[in-house]
Amino acid sequence: MAKLDLYKKPDAIKVPATMQAVVLSGRGFENLAVKEVPVPEVGPGQILARVDAAGVCTSIIKLLAQGEDHTYVNGWDMGKWPVILGDEGSVTLVKIGKKLENKYHCGQRFAVQPAVNVGPILNRERFRDNAAGMHKCAVGYTLPGHLAQYMLIQEEVLEGNCLLPLPDNKMPFFAVSMSEPVSCIMSAQERNFHLVKDGPFAPRRPVMGVLPGGVTVVIGAGAMGRIHAELAMRAKPSAVIVCDVQKERLDKTVEAVGRKAGEKGIKLICVTSDKLHETVRSVSGGKGADDIILAVGIRPVQQDALTLLAEGGVANLFGGLPKGQHMLELDGLAVHYREIKVVGSSGGDPSDMVASLDAIAKGDLDAGSYVAAVGSLDNAVKVLNMIKEGKMDGKAILYPHIGSMPLQLVDHWSGADEEKFLNERLKG
User: Fold this and answer.
1) pTM given for the model
2) 5, pLDDT greater than 90
């Protein structure tokens, strides 16, 4: 490891008075900037953490578009009280509030589940109707986020049990950051369920997740779709069919999970959209797909996918549809006679994050296959524009404590890559 402040014992680091942070002060990209801001003061029931790595999440685009109307913002005036973005990251504790000194210590490493299942505790007056009816809040929205050099862990995060220890303290920073998007997929796949019978007189029993021995279809081979395909293999379906309009993404799918599919005896079939119906019929023997995961938020695609379900099949609407284009028609006869199901989810919770950390630490999922770029904090605005324009196929990982540098595109990222990268950029 580099002999630098980033790797010193945190109790030996002098925390500066100011820090860099990605700050949103209103709706739209014009109100987004990387700024020098004060390092937060730590209250008795709070913790200050150093952010070692941070991911740039697609969900920030929705926040930029909706501003104070976003559910998690709920009227908070970002012009008066700017927010620090970032719902994905890896942190190390550097200052502990007086009330927490017996529970936490400097140097501990954690992941933070950003979807906090408690209502606002602080600053309730800043929300619409004094936060009446709010039962959730979120890190990177009105709670301080990871796209900063230091991050205040507030009471809401602690009360919601969202500060999560690592299963292995040697986990690379980027891998911890990747646990958040992976946790959303963990959560989503648990929404799929099948009622099975072991014989004509046996009781029905639920099987969580995709159907073992069944046919799973993933529509959308972006990074999240590829992770869906890899995680679906835990259930050992007989076949995983991945569909996308872009052949390049299908090639990436084969690179990411083709070997694993072969080792597990699972047929991995990657097809363009025009061949999907024919492929599902052929692979399933005309029965249809047992599980369809829609990793794209496009209404005609989701509508068409419902026609591919087998009897008892499940369609998972993972990709959210934009407002105004979100209504789907559901065939009531298919629900009644073919017993199809439509499910969905919105993010994960602490248990999903723990499961994703464990899966990454054990090597059940190669998080580095889904990293597309690395860089410094000042790349955040560029990355968000690339996401908006569809030019970022994978996760960008930013390291807040390195100096300014151009964004570096990568095909794969590993712990060794990260260590070399940080050593080179933190010399001196």
Assistant:
1) 0.92
2) no
